[in-house]
Amino acid sequence: YDDRDGTIWLDGKLVPWRDAKVHLLTHALHYGSSVFEGERAYNGKIFESRKHSERLLFSGKEMDIPIPYSVDQIEAAKDEALKASGLSDAYVRAVCWRGSGEDMGVASSHNPVRMGIAVWEWGAYYGDAKMKGAKIDIAKWKRPDPATIPCFAKAAGLYMICTMSKHAAEAKGCSDALMMDYRGYVAEATGANVFFVKDGKVHTPTPDCFLNGITRQTVIGMLKSKGVEVVERHIMPEELPGFEQCWLTGTAAEVTPVGQIGPHMFEVGALTRDIALDYEKLVRGQLVDA
Ligand code: PMP
């Protein structure tokens, strides 16, 4: 991703894509002190842009990474980066991290907090799974106890669990992994929230130790406005065989149907297809009745 044309917004100005480099002694590289956002623009406009900027600031606060920009400044910076990309449908990655400076130990309160925004084209996150239903592994690693780390922050350090789980899943021919939480309840996939359908009702895990995704909240709103009952509760993995349909939600994943989790099969049913289509219309401003 580093060797291409274009520009990246770095610490307040646009720089050539290939020059957006950081030093080896960047605190974030050694200790994981980084928070970020993943956003999508449709027809030249970032969907729920402000919510993402607010979550970035929230993540910084939670992880003790003081971001030196306001929501309005982040909004303007993302706009500038998106316009400079010349793209209308794009993925937008904003990232803030502790840079290199006076400290190279665990403590880094004197090091500058830096920010970058890169914009590129990113098609369907799960490839053709979007049509057929993704095949999902069951992860060995668990989402941690909220007493271990601020679990509602979108923080780089937390993603090691996801990367390891996703690598293990891909090695088995799966697109992703479903992670349980520290208590053994179903939590989420490595970069997306999960929903199940049973007897016309939708069930989704209570987000009490993982990201309550912006897409998740959007989809719950869409389901409710369609009159579909949504039950947020703790879900045990033993319940998986009893569900009829399943899908994942996330900014990158959008609404992706799931065909299989471990040995359990799901149909890509009418509700899954409706919600995937409605979400596509909503992000493009074409949904009239939501
Ligand atoms: N969980 C994890 C671990 C994620 O990385 C994401 C993607 N940001 C989500 C859930 C979904 O969040 P959102 O809908 O806000 O993109």
Would you give an account of this structure?
Keywords: Amino-acid biosynthesis, Aminotransferase, Branched-chain amino acid biosynthesis, Pyridoxal phosphate, Transferase. The chain is an alpha+beta fold and 290 residues long. The protein has 2 domains: 7-120, D-amino Acid Aminotransferase, Chain A, domain 1 (2-Layer Sandwich), CATH 3.30.470; 129-283, D-amino Acid Aminotransferase, Chain A, domain 2 (Alpha-Beta Barrel), CATH 3.20.10.10. It has helices spanning 27-31, 49-62, 71-85, 129-132, 159-171, 214-225, 270-283, and strands at 7-10, 13-16, 34-42, 45-46, 90-98, 113-120, 134-138, 176-180, 186-189, 193-198, 201-205, 230-233, 245-250, 254-261, 264-265. Strands 7, 8, 9, 10, 11, 12, 13, 14 and 15 form a 9-stranded mixed β-sheet that branches. A hairpin with a 2-residue loop joins strand 3 (34-42) and strand 4 (45-46). Bound molecules: 4'-deoxy-4'-aminopyridoxal-5'-phosphate. 4'-deoxy-4'-aminopyridoxal-5'-phosphate binds at residues 38, 154, 162, 188, 191-193, 210-211, 213-216, 249-251.
Topology, element by element:
Elements: E1 7-10, E2 13-16, H1 27-31, E3 34-42, E4 45-46, H2 49-62, H3 71-85, E5 90-98, E6 113-120, H4 129-132, E7 134-138, H5 159-171, E8 176-180, E9 186-189, E10 193-198, E11 201-205, H6 214-225, E12 230-233, E13 245-250, E14 254-261, E15 264-265, H7 270-283
Parallel strand pairs: 7-8, 7-14, 11-12
Antiparallel strand pairs: 1-2, 1-6, 3-4, 3-5, 5-6, 8-9, 10-11, 10-13, 13-14, 14-15
The structure holds 4'-deoxy-4'-aminopyridoxal-5'-phosphate.
4'-deoxy-4'-aminopyridoxal-5'-phosphate binds near residues 192, 213, 215, 216 and 250.
Family: Belongs to the class-IV pyridoxal-phosphate-dependent aminotransferase family.
Protein name: Branched-chain-amino-acid aminotransferase
GO biological process, one term: isoleucine biosynthetic process
